[in-house]
Amino acid sequence: MPDIKLFQFANPEAIWLLLIIPVLIGIFIIIKIRKKNALERFGDKNLLNRLMPEASPGKGLAKFLILSFALALLILMIARPQFGSKLKEVTRKSAEVIIALDVSNSMMATDIKPSRLDKAKLAISQLMNKIQGDNLGLIVFAGQAYTQIPITSDFSAAELFLESVNTSIVPVQGTNITAAINLGMKSFSPSNEKGKALIIITDGENHEEEAISQAKTAAEKGIRVSTVGMGGLRAVPIPDGRGYFKKKKNGEPVLTKLNETLLKQIAKAGGGIYTPANNIQSGLSKIYTEISGMDRNEMKADFAEYDDRFMLLASLALIFLLVEFFILERKNRWVRKFDIFKE
Fold first, then answer.
1. Residue 108 in this model has a pLDDT that exceeds 50
2. Cβ-contact 194, 294 below 8 angstroms
3. DSSP codes, 26-59
4. Tally of helices (H runs) and strands (E runs) in the chain
5. Is-cis flag, bond preceding 114, omega within 30?
6. d(CA 118, CA 135)
7. Which domains does the chain have, with CATH numbers?
8. What is the pLDDT of residue 229?
9. Could you write out the DSSP letters of every residue in 287-298?
10. What is the four-CA torsion angle of 102, 106, 111, 115, rounded to 10 degrees?
């Protein structure tokens, strides 16, 4: 494996703390100007110099600059600079999990707070924080199904795409679970023969008849299909996004309720499990716990080995702080002999 030179900050967000330093410089300049103006109003400059023979404006500036350098070094230390010298081949086992999220209008119902869709998005986000070493993809579906996030291990980017998901992202309304399963089967890596799971999050108001048979087909291809039921068994109205509820042509409200029977049948045919969601739990974590025992694919990948180098910055910062400690704006009998500014 060829050696390479790599550099990174383990905590790059800490670099923003360096903006504190120009703010402190501005405050220091303002204080110095105000102090100078106050002394000029107090009396003659030459007279004040004779009255304060040990005062040294240069020392104050030196102390400030040294402290600023020390602060900058401490901030860089917090950012944890790391150097990598080589790539290491690592073999890891991973699974592929694709979540098919229902974004039909019925998912805006608020029988699960704050809404079925918002609760599902929150659960997916929490799942991303728990997945260790597995890859995740996201499909959105209503009357049609679309890939929102291809299979990836970059969960930071996936979070950004997840935030943009809403009921208007799919132009054709409905709840076509069959289309979601079909697209899910095509979205897994063809080279992987095992470790594949499809999780369907929906209220189950399916308008297609082939969802159960398609789930069985997926299971025959080694894809475990599980379902999460969003909503309650009691029918509730669907918000229209303007503070009212959707209505039929005759003025009656459009109602929606969980089709639990269908979702149980799909999960059974797909070799997975069904779990209902409520205001307390999403059910998604339970399903992931179940599929975490699946056989996984072995994958080889190159990872850079990094070594921390923050101790060097910490040592330099300590030296600056010690130097600043021995630089006094006014001399005294205890540290006079250490005064590096003595004329």
1. yes
2. yes
3. HHHHHHHHHHHHHHHHHS-HHHHHHH-TT--HHH
4. 10, 11
5. yes
6. 22
7. 3-84+306-338 (no CATH), 96-295 (3.40.50.410)
8. 92
9. HHHHHTTS--EE
10. 60
